[in-house]
Design goal:
alpha/beta; globular; 23 strands; 28 helices; Beta-Lactamase; nine-stranded mixed β-sheet; eight-stranded mixed β-sheet; 3 domains; TIM Barrel; Enzyme I, Chain A, domain 2
């Protein structure tokens, strides 16, 4: 045994040398799969292991998958997948620490994967592959005999995993560069009729040809065509004229749909069309003999590289404008060469990641739906899509980004499904269902002027507004005012902070459109995941608990004062103007923010400008720190608005967007329910209005409780108003109070769930 140990220790030394040699092979034609397979064989050989497997971490799905193996069934590669934390391998990667088991089956973390066929292997050693806190995967060795691995094996495998981590990163980079250089990625086509499950970010239905939005990569929006070589300089001039006319028409239509941003959407496009170094350089290259399509690609790629080299994110984002303009010119150039009239086409867009500004350009093209493949979404992209009624689905299937142009795609963003090139019988079924849904919605939109419970208690319903274009729907559905206007959108789509003059017409139109009804404007709520691309601020280790919301504006007084002045001036003559501060954490913070309003009023008075001199000033209740000081806050504030999304998140210390802990996000938690009750009772004692504007406000399961504790003002997205009014009309206030009392007496989630599931309450409230 001692001789065997010595041989293994020497083998560990050679292992490091061979791993370095293996890294050098990446420069050749080796694929990543080949590299991983050779690495597994080498490690198994040096550690006298019967099995060596390499698992890689897929960040988009938070899963580990078997990427290479020697000793296990080769068919298991790509088939064995596990969540981080599942099984011995998942446990190792979760903790980023080695796990050595003499007999794997006896481990408390053991999980059997049938596809691996690893029953006969006893000894099990796994080490994480990582770079600092960043997970890359895991390296596993197994042996048929028990207790075959010791401390020296752990040290050797850790050294190998360190080398392997660097090599895997290099391999991925090199293979990506090779694909970019070739211009054609290796495509495994998705079979026609394939159905892919997806997460829902914005509901809806769409059936249209697909197009892939590739950001910051080589410009290959169209498949090469043999006819490209016959394109002429005259075709190019016709394409430029057609592009200019298209953009003018889009800008005009956009002004009606999104007045906050109409002048911004194509500003860069128009500038580039007139810039001699852009269009002029293309013409010069063509006159020198370069084909039009090649000249367009060359100049566009040059500009793309210049912008991507900038240290400023907001400048790098301008790459999107260059690519968008180039694609438009390319499409028009090909149509000009074919003698066709240039026209836009409704499409479903596949993308890895999108910014709010990207959504706007897609709206201008009348996009039918969006699929985010692998990148995920932010709250503002989701909110914007909902406001614009664009279906948005999320999936970790990155192969959707390789779909051929114009592949028919059906999106069911009600059930969370994507159908690639579906058969006509499926398309027909969905169209019939959508027609039925549309008729049902029209019938349900007959809302009354006022809302009341079954026993006559008056309840007011207001609208959450993200875009001015939502106001007509809010008025049509009898919203009694705007309970929350989010001001972030005009900030997110610009390349610099909007001036007072730029904000003023937006807020003024909001008050004018609501015709004397109450309007509550929330001051700028950025930070966390709502990042302003033009703000050069260092990254924060925990942005959700960092410089965000009111903390940000109080530390940037010039930005805060500019916004307050614009709101006050826009509200001149308004009957019921309200200013609300987000994420207040203390009495001192509210008083400091309120003083900014008072100071702005003094400035405007001295400048002899018209403004609202008596706005109501209130706060969002989103932090648990306010619950115990509600009486003191009620003495100085004019109103409260409970933001339940953040209130639950901060009360329970749960990121609701993190699927690994989302099961802990429980809006029916006893602490949440009792906290809400205390907030409402404190406001009532001081005669201060309290509204609710988070997701709980429109969820039927929570309505009886909220009414029972005294909520009489709900603010929801306009589309929820008819359903909310109907649900409230079925609830008796006396029964709601009894129900709320029962829930408040529950001390555990289990007990509260039992009460909510009680058939008696479900029948009474129509749940």
């Amino acid at each position: 045994m001692a001789k065997k140990r010595t041989r293994k220790k020497r083998s560990h030394i050679h292992l490091l040398y061979d791993m370095n040699e293996l890294t050098n092979l990446l420069v050749g034609t080796l694929t990543v799969d080949d590299f991983l397979k050779q690495a597994a064989e080498m490690v198994a050989r040096h550690l006298d292991a019967h099995v060596c497997s390499i698992y890689l971490y897929d960040e988009s799905s938070d899963e580990l998958y078997l990427a290479a193996t020697t000793g296990l069934d080769p068919e298991a590669v790509g088939q064995v997948r596990m969540k981080v934390g599942d099984g011995i391998v998942g446990h190792c990667v979760d903790r980023l620490k080695p796990v050595c088991e003499g007999v794997a089956e006896k481990s408390p973390y053991f999980k059997y994967f049938r596809a691996a066929r690893e029953d006969r292997f006893k000894s099990f050693l796994v080490v994480p592959i990582h770079r600092g806190p960043v997970r890359i995967g895991a390296l596993v060795v197994q042996h048929e005999e028990p207790d075959m691995f010791d401390e020296s094996d752990i040290m050797g495998l850790l050294a190998a995993s360190s080398q392997l981590g660097t090599s895997i990163e290099n391999a991925r980079m090199i293979m990506e560069m090779n694909r970019s250089a070739d211009g054609v990625p290796e495509v495994r086509p998705i079979p026609p009729g394939t159905m892919i499950r997806a997460g829902i970010a914005s509901e809806g239905y769409a059936y249209a040809p697909a197009t892939v939005l590739r950001k910051g990569g080589p410009l290959h929006p169209l498949e090469p065509s043999p006819d490209d070589e016959f394109l002429t300089l005259e075709d190019f001039h016709r394409a430029m004229e057609a592009t200019f006319e298209q953009l003018q028409a889009l800008q005009s239509g956009f002004a009606r749909r999104l007045p906050e941003s109409a002048s911004l959407i194509f500003a860069t496009h128009f500038m580039m069309l007139k810039d001699d170094s852009f269009a002029g350089q293309m013409v010069r290259l063509m006159k020198d003999g370069m084909p039009p399509m090649q000249a367009l690609r060359q100049v566009s790629s040059h500009y793309t590289a210049l912008l991507l080299s900038s240290p400023h994110e907001y400048i790098r984002e301008k790459v999107n404008d260059i690519e968008d303009l180039s694609v438009r010119i390319m499409r028009n150039l090909r149509k000009a060469g074919q003698g066709e009239a240039a026209s836009g086409q409704k499409r479903i867009v596949m993308a890895e990641q999108l910014y709010p500004s990207d959504i706007l350009k897609l709206v201008a093209d009348d996009v039918q739906g969006i699929v985010l493949a692998g990148g995920g979404t932010t709250a503002h992209v989701s909110i914007l899509s909902k406001s614009l009624q664009i279906p948005l689905l999320m999936t970790d299937r990155r192969d959707l980004l390789l779909l051929p142009e114009d592949t028919p795609v059906l999106m069911d963003a009600y059930m969370g499904a994507i159908y690639v090139d579906p058969p006509q019988k499926i398309v027909k079924r969905f169209r019939e269902r959508e027609k039925t849904r549309s008729i049902a919605l029209q019938r349900s939109a007959g809302v009354a002027d006022e809302t009341a419970t079954r026993d006559g208690a008056r309840v007011r319903l207001m609208a959450n507004v993200n875009l001015l274009s939502e106001i007509p729907l809010a008025r049509k559905l009898k919203a009694e005012g705007v309970g929350l206007y989010r001001t972030e959108f005009p900030f997110l789509i610009r390349t610099a902070f909007p001036s007072e003059a730029e904000q003023l017409p937006i807020y003024r139109r909001l008050f004018e459109e609501m015709k004397g009804r109450p309007v509550t404007i929330r001051t700028l709520d950025v930070g966390g995941e709502k990042v302003l691309p033009y703000l050069d601020a260092p990254p924060e280790p925990n942005p959700e608990l960092g410089l965000r919301s009111i903390r940000f504006t109080l530390s940037h007084r010039d930005i805060f004062t500019t916004q307050i002045r614009a709101i006050l001036r826009a509200a001149a003559g308004a009957r019921d103007a309200r200013i609300m501060f987000p994420m207040i954490s203390s009495l001192d913070e509210f008083l400091e923010a309120r003083q900014v309003v008072f100071s702005a009023m003094e400035e405007l008075s001295e400048e002899k400008l018209d403004f609202c001199d008596r706005p109501s000033i209130g706060m969002m209740v989103e932090l648990p720190s306010l619950v115990d000081i509600m009486d003191e806050l009620a003495d100085v504030t004019d109103f409260f608005a409970i933001g339940t999304n953040d209130f639950v998140q901060y009360m329970l210390a749960v990121d609701r967007t993190n699927h690994r802990v989302s099961q802990y996000y429980a809006s029916h938690h006893p602490a949440v329910l009792r906290g809400l009750d205390r907030i409402v009772r404190a406001a009532d004692r001081k005669g201060k209005e309290v509204s609710i504007c988070g997701e709980m406000a429109h969820e039927k399961a929570h309505l009886p409780f909220l009414l029972g504790i005294g909520i009489r003002l709900f603010s929801v997205n306009p589309q929820f108003l008819p359903q909310l009014q109907e649900s409230i009309s079925r609830i008796s206030l006396s029964e709601a109070r009894e129900y709320a009392g029962a829930l408040l007496s529950g001390s555990s989630l289990k007990r509260i769930q039992e009460i909510m599931a009680d058939r008696k309450w479900k029948e009474r409230f129509g749940l």
